[in-house]
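Batch manifest, entry 17 of 40.
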Amino acid sequence: MNPETLLYAKTHEWVSLAEEGGAKVATVGISAFAVEALTDLVFMELPKVGQQVKPGDSICEIESVKAVSDLYSPVEGEVVEVNEPLPDNLETLSDDPFGGGWVCKIKLTSDTGLDALMDYPAYQKACEEEAH
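Output type: structure tokens
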């Protein structure tokens, strides 16, 4: 996926929206900025399929040699799919964060959270401010 066409949460999750079977589905991943900040990933717990989530809910944990970080849901809905190979191939998060590094798909039950997401230029600006 092209990072410039995605939406971003302040907590560094990216979202790609699509229509699947008549429903809005958000593919959710972790931005390259966040992966770089975490460095040396060692463990990841995926969300559970069927899990109901709201914006701001912790949906899984990612552990690096430095710290444990939560991945937060940027949208409201139900986790309908997870990237099963990801925990055994954490380098994918670094090598292909906007493609093979996706974490889960969430079928939206409302538009809650969408208005808080940033486009690419706004996210880049937020990252620059955070880096200083």
